[in-house]
Amino acid sequence: xxxxxxxxxxxxxxxxxxxxxxxxxxxxxxxxxxxxxxxxxxxxxxxxxxxxxxxxxxxxxxxxxxxxxxxxxxxxxxxxxxxxxxxxxxxxxxxxxxxxxxxxxxxxxxxxxxxxxxxxxxxxxxxxxxxxxxxxxxxxxxxxxxxxxxxxxxxxxxxxxxxxxxxxxxxxxxxxxxxxxxxxxxxxxxxxxxxxxxxxxxxxxxxxxxxxxxxxxxxxxxxxxxxxxxxxxxxxxxxxxxxxxxxxxxxxxxxxxxxxxxxxxxxxxxxxx
Length: 273
Hints:
two-stranded antiparallel sheet
């Protein structure tokens, strides 16, 4: 960007000046992804958000990176929903690209999504031996110290792209004090419980109840949203599950069935369960 103008000189004359400012690329408007599935716009729309991507690899110190696993799981979930029919699906990213947290939720809002699910994989040294998936909803304060640490780590992703998250934090606070958002929060919690119910005996979860924390990516006030931590990438059994096609399909089937039940409960038309 180049700014030009004139200013008074020492003797009262006018002098030209030029100021050049280098702008970072990648902060413009993000194009909306393709919607797949039924052409009927009355069918519910799910936006799946594979966490991290591009210059942000996420968790994982070995060859397996979080950004790769989240995309593989998201694609498996998309395919499960398309096979069952009745639900429209879009992914915030379908390749290895970086998206800021605000861009992810903004995509879902602009597309008029009925449900938003952000997929991640965890890595921790604090909880040695921690294993299993977890599902989170939005809250001002974490349901545990682990939940608060998790939210702090995921919210810090925007710093990789040089994007401050202060405005998002303010938005989260404003949402949480607005009583009109209780219905949306209730629907998010309902969906989280359905994931846990469908996972019993199929996919290991660390906790028997959903957790909550101030995740910036869940800040949309009108959109039921959850964040799914699919497992611990630094735990051998979780890593084996997350990197295997069988493990990815099992998690996709669990979440896909939870989505179908959620829409059926909320009087939104889907294919037969």
